[in-house]
Amino acid sequence: MPPLELVRGFVAVGRRQSVTHAARELGLSQSAVSRQVQALEAALGVKLLVRTYRGLAFTEAGERLFHLAEEALRQLHGATLAARGAPHDDPVTLAASVGIASLWLMPRLPALRGRHPDIALRLLATTRQAEPRPEQAELVVRYASRAMLPARARRLFDEVLVPVAHPALGLSSLRAPAELAGVPLLDFEDPLHPWLQWEDWLQAVRWPAPASPLLRFNQYDLVVQAALAAQGVALGRLALIQPHLESGRLLALAGAPQAPASGHAYWLVLASNRPRPAALQVADWIEAAARLPQACGA
Fold first, then answer.
1. How many CB atoms lie within 10 A of CB 39?
2. Most buried pick, 13, 38, 109, 118, via CB within 10 A?
């Protein structure tokens, strides 16, 4: 059986799809994490990860091992807590990226608290460089492809990108690239998900790059705040900005072309296949709320 630290290194790389981010999580150098993955592959005699033009990807054997090993590590952590007599009345920790937490979860928290007033909840907003370890959160809302997630992950909603702008900007439609000329483009710096950026979107819809200034932000909620301040046109992630569209604070530009689907969606991942009842109640409520894209709760 391979040493546990090799398995832990592989799971961290698989979850992040990045050696760099896995190294930050584990407190190791990138070369050390790479050696762990290589040593595990050598011990098993199979290739687990391959490099593609968009980053790392699982092989078929790697995907199978990832799901089994991730669950095994979670169970080991749970058994360790049980052996130490850890309390079971802790708050339910729900983790999500800063953008999802502020734009989707926060408007719905009052309704969640109203439905389950006796459940203590802890919301953990994360960045890609500091995503939670499996033992840090019972529930995680993730933006990912199906292949990156365990079988028990629950699909919440798909990703739909729509160019949006504040009414004060004077744009109501986007039927030709010339309409973007001179208009600032609000861009989300996310090298792991290039389809969320203007350059990739323009290429996908076969439009030339306009002579427009770019304003870049490293958090998606900042992109939305800039759009609300009429600072330019943003690629709106429909599920996250729906309340602003309904209120009229943002307009979906009519006639804009639709880029091909990225294969990513929003998922709710339960850290254990035996969640606490309180965590399961919160998960059920979130899944139900996701079926109501035009409501902020209830």
1. 16
2. 13
* Weakest-pLDDT range from 28-42, 108-122, 131-145, 224-238: 131-145
Render the burial of 170-185: b for 16+ CB within 10 Å, e for the rest: ebeebeebebbeebbb
Q: Which CATH architecture group holds 92-158+263-290? A: 3-Layer(aba) Sandwich (3.40)
What's the pLDDT score for residue 295? 38
- CA separation for the pair 175, 192 (Å, rounded): 28
**Signed CA dihedral, 234, 238, 244, 246: sign only:** positive
Q: What is the C-alpha to C-alpha distance for residues 157 and 236, in angstroms, rounded to an integer? A: 15
Domain range 4-83, CATH architecture: Orthogonal Bundle (1.10)
In tens, the pLDDT along 241-283 reads 998 999 999 999 999 999 998 889 999 998 887 888 999 999 9
Do residues 33 and 22 make contact, with C-beta atoms less than 8 angstroms apart? yes
In angstroms, rounded to a whole number, what is the distance separating the alpha carbons of residues 63 and 61? 6
H/E run at residue 67: helix 60-83
Give residue 139's pLDDT.
92
pTM score: 0.66
254 φ/ψ angles, rounded to the nearest 5 degrees: -65, 145
Whether 177 and 210 have beta carbons less than 8 Å apart is answered as yes
Nearest to 95 by CA among 270, 285, 222: 270
Residue bearing tokens 């002579």:
211
Within 8 A by CB and 6+ apart from 164, the residues are 227, 233, 234, 235, 236, 241, 244, 245, 250, 251, 252, 253
Closest among 230, 293, 298 to 103, alpha carbons compared: 293
Q: How many Cβ atoms are within 10 Å of 211's Cβ, its own excluded? A: 10
Look at the domain 161-252 and name its fold: D-Maltodextrin-Binding Protein; domain 2 (3.40.190)
